[in-house]
Amino acid sequence: MSQRPISEEILSEALPHLIRRELRRQTARPEGSGCPDANALAAFIEQHLDRTEKQAIVEHLNACQPCRMSVVFAMRAGQAAEASSSSRTALLTAPARSPFLPWGVAGGIAAGLLAAFVLFWQRPPAPRKTAALVQQASLQMPDPATPVQTYQAAISPALLPQAHRAHARVPAQPAAMSASAPALTSASSALPFTAPKSSSRAPIRQGFATLTPSHAPQSSVLPGMEVASTSLNSDGPASAPPQAGNSLPAGGSGSFAAPIPMASSFLGSPVMAQPHASLVSSGTPMSSDRLGFSRFLAQGSAGPVWRISSGGVLEHAAGRGAWVRVPLQAAGRLVSLTVSGAHLWAVSQAGTLYHSADAGQSWHPVHVGLDRHAMQDAIVGVHFADQQQGELITRSGAHWFTVDGGHFWRPVIAPSLTTGMAVRH
Amino acid sequence: MLWKRNKLRKRADLAALYAAAGAARYGLSPAQFERILQQVQMLRHSHGGGDDAAFFEKLHLKELVLARACAQGNEIAWNDFMASYRPMIVNAARQLCRNPAGADEVAGSLYGELYGLKEREGKRVSLLDSYQGSGSLAGWLRMILAQREVDRWRQRRRVVAWEDESVDLVDPAATEAFADGLEPVSVLQESVAAALQDLPEEGRLLLSLYYLDERSLAEIGKVFHVHESTVSRRLNRLLQETRERVLAELCQRGLDASAAEEALLTDVRRLTLDVTTFLASTSRPQKSARERAKTPLPARLWRAAGASPRPTLGDPT
């Protein structure tokens, strides 16, 4: 026969009394018998005892009420001092939930989505789009009736971001000049030059065309662009790419407010040096010679003029003299040239950059890379705004720039003043 | 060679401890510092011993040196001590005494003992000589203050020793209720004693602090360095374990449910009656336990407790 269990209610009611009574009986001991001193109790409170010592103290406290009271009183006395410092109890309590936590999480998620969107937006475009986007950029020949203050490749600001993404290799050259242009730039053959509108934002300089100093590019369309004065080198000789059929408007009047900007020859770029006022006013046409090259003269300068022939050979002519070949055997065929005073930089077809500091008398290859690591990509074009600041572009569309005359180069990905492509600064 | 190497290493360790303690600031020589460490080490060994290196690492050396320098009357040490610990002593005293006058009295008496106003055999006797560095100096001072306050409190309250009352709670006459020789109340008491004995020491300390000392959960949490909610959970768990053990003991000792309940109820009523009797008799001279057992309890007190008086208990003949 099973026994009926004891009533829980009765047991619960009686249990506290029973416990209290039994504890009284068990803990009764003569006062001061074997009580630990203040050192031990203080160490017990501060948890500086090992396990054995702590167990002994606990056993004593179980049996000694005065010591228990001392411990509690000491804890009470230390409450004010410990309230400001973090105690162990704080570690065991549930951490307070910050009211800003949900906002922080939401902000982190939003930042992650934004970063993903930006990365997706900045990805390299498909090759087919590159040519199409480049074709959309238009370059128009300057209006001969108006003082040509600049030759600029006009790129619609709306197209600029696309152009950046497309890493357009060139800004184009006039259709008439595209006959002998390499295939790389064939897609850009329909890009004319346009004269800047005084009231509008200055179009972004495309390729290595130049701007007048008085009309500093206002293009604030792209972040990171250099609004540089392009103050250009007034004594820089001009050079021209091997282009056929190019002819500048002859005649015209007007003066050029600024010194002739230094021009660069960039493969496929709308290489145009600002014609000399005197030449224009004198009606000297700038026409192609029988070899299909154009001759450009520096402003009022009797200094040498540089060019790259159709065979990729560097030539120079002093004033109106004959073109003289400049030996640069190690370089082979040249595809790009930029001149600033006595400094010349040329790019070979193999993608190597060469530099001459003595007007072409001696040349040496330029190391482009980071620290000891040379850049592996082939260089296809170079431009120097002055003798110190220069930029080059590689076959893959990467841009590198220098501010010390070509001694040190570093890659960039912010929009470039020259090419309108994304370069990093 | 080994003992020489150990000696050299010991010298190096001692020099490092001397530098770490900053004893030079108070004019303590390395020899004096070593004597202090030896004294502390002897006291420690008398309590159990252990690894010396680990022991010295845990010591509060700076505070130990400060305390001993104060005990020797070093003025610089006293200046540092008063600047660092005087506010703490005053605050602790006020926290304990709850009134400014009492707090000042406690703090003032403590200053005198710490400074060593008394002399023994021509030598100053300072309470700071008893500080051993096992805990912080601030904690040691708070414990000294707490012990002083407990002594004052007990003298004021004239606390009656608990053991005098516990014996009276069990009425020997109640054992006659059962003819088979079982003493249900005694059995109940033994069951509870056995149940509490099986609890861990920390559990019993928790129950003592809560039921005997009537401390709050927060205060108990401070002692155990846990949150009061943890104390509450542990307390409930202990009560549950005690309840189960008591039931198991009662069954093991042959009490059925009815008898156990009867014993519990009787015991509770007896507790209530005893308290009432005690309160009613506080103005009269205390009777001994034997005298109280012989005196029958008035019937009205039984009725007040909700029980019917038994013929064997209290009914006047």
What report would you give on this structure?
The complex is a heterodimer of chains A (425) and B (317). Chain A is α+β, with helices and mostly antiparallel strands and 425 residues long. Chain A has helices spanning 8-27, 38-45, 51-63, 65-82, 88-92, 101-121, 127-136, 160-166, 277-281, and strands at 239-240, 264-265, 304-308, 314-318, 324-325, 334-340, 343-348, 353-356, 364-365, 369-370, 373-374, 379-384, 390-394, 399-402, 410-412. In chain A, strands 2-6-7-8-9 form a 5-stranded antiparallel beta sheet, with no helix packed on it. In chain A, helix 3 (51-63) crosses helix 4 (65-82) and helix 7 packs antiparallel against helix 8. Chain A is rod-shaped, with a radius of gyration of 41 Å. Chain A starts with 7 loop residues before the first helix and ends in a 13-residue tail after the last strand. The relative contact order of chain A is 0.09. In chain B, helix 4 crosses helix 5 (75-97), helix 5 (75-97) crosses helix 7 and helix 9 packs across helix 12. With 317 residues, chain B is mostly helical. In chain B, strand 1 and strand 2 (123-125) form a beta hairpin. Chain B has helices at residues 2-21, 30-45, 52-58, 61-71, 75-97, 100-115, 137-157, 162-166, 184-197, 201-212, 217-224, 228-252, 257-280, 289-294, 299-304; strands spanning 118-120, 123-125. The chains are: A alpha+beta (425), B mainly alpha (317). At the A-B interface, helix 1, helix 2, helix 3, helix 4 and helix 5 of A face helix 5, helix 7, helix 8, helix 9 and helix 10 of B.
